[in-house]
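Suppose a colleague, Dr. K., hands you the sequence of a protein chain of 489 amino acids and asks what its three-dimensional shape might be. Before reaching for any lab equipment, you can write down a predicted structure in token form. Begin with the sequence itself:
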Amino acid sequence: MVFSSSASAASPKAGDIVVQSGVVQAADGSSVPYEVGTLYVPENRQAPGSRIIGVGFARLKAKTPTGAPPVFWLPGGPGLSVLDALDSSSPAVRARLASWLTYASVGDLVVIEQRGYTVRGERLEITAPAEPLDRPATIAADIAGTIALAKAAVAAHPDKDLSGYTIAACAEDVNDLRRALGYDHLSLFGGSFGSQWSLAVMRLHPETVARAVLSSVEPLDYGYDMPSQVFAAMQRIAFDADKDAGLAPYLPEGGLMAAVRTLETRFAKAPVRVKVRGSDGKEQAIVLGQVDFQSALLEQAGDAESWPAFVLSQYYGHHEAWAQEAIEDRRAKPYKLIGPLIDTSLGETPQREFLLRNDPAVAMLGTGGFASYIASAKDWPTPDMGDAFRAFARSDIPVLLVHGDWDTSTPLENMLTQLAYFPHGRGIVVHRGGHDGVFYQLRNEPAAKSAVYAFLRTGELNDLPTEVTLPVPAFKLPQFAPPARQSAR
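The predicted structure, expressed as tokens, is then:
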């Protein structure tokens, strides 16, 4: 291990880094050196004498200096840990490393994890208790359960100051790492929460940010998604699904969205009890209601190819696969604390909350996407970040924003609203793009991908499209024969 000049292995101080060197093999067989290390930071930056914690990071230096600022890649989540890409044998995880190696033409790449969920520090978790199977989910039960989790989290970690785990603290960690590694400026690269984290860095330390490339954009005041904008993304998926020849025999009159509306009415009237047989051969039953359906509708929409089949399966009463997943979801499971600690602290402006609660699509998607966190915010120990921090503000930093219009996790309107505050910004709308990173969104556009790397290297927004269209996917079909006639049961 290599220590910074002021670091001590036994008692590191805030700002110290500890670094190990290693080598990974690139796709062409060449050896690529890397550094993986720990940045030491105060757990609560507002409390003098706070406990020192570790935050993991990695750096892959460019083979040849380019003169460009390093790219700081900020993971999503909150709670996405990525440094296992350096030693995992998993093909999916190793693919992440392969993508990191492509930044060599730009400059150094630095990956930093989130405080409170990092392989080079601590992973703050508790066990969320099992939920009953004999009753449907409700918003009231979700709120009560989240409040109980907040209190349990504090009780389970009496030696930790959980109030220090805010998005602002994460942004300061990035700035500390920049200084520790000796960089004057940096470029930011992130998607989903990684984009929100990047926006926090840009808000707090704009003088250090040369430029940014963000995808699946999540503005600081948009941590909770507007139901009507999510529903609009579902409608765009349904538009193509309704024209799919394989799905046609299953579609009711009015198409896929008519099936969604019918299901919403059906589950509002009464829940269903579904019996399934587990992998152990034992039979179990679960009761699924309106809130369960709304949650599943949103979760399943993240996989656009499978979402129509999910909707149609429920429409024709084939609930078994959904029930199996719901049973697993209701089991006791690890619960990452960094998510609610950051999200409830960031919160929302009063205007945003008003719009969320009064959005017309609440009738279809419910309030499960925000009600429990808003109601439990006072019980989580992280302080409110304040309206001045989360409100939109003009920035002269050059940015590129890439966003799919099939994104049901961070809807397209997020990017369109944020872009207006970047006079030196460019947006790319990816038709049929989902909740994905920049280069996956642009996977069929090699010239655009090259232009993104050029922007990171030079700051020039040349040769970039404003719109990209992906091909219609091959929609999966329900796992049963088409009905003799299309009518709801």
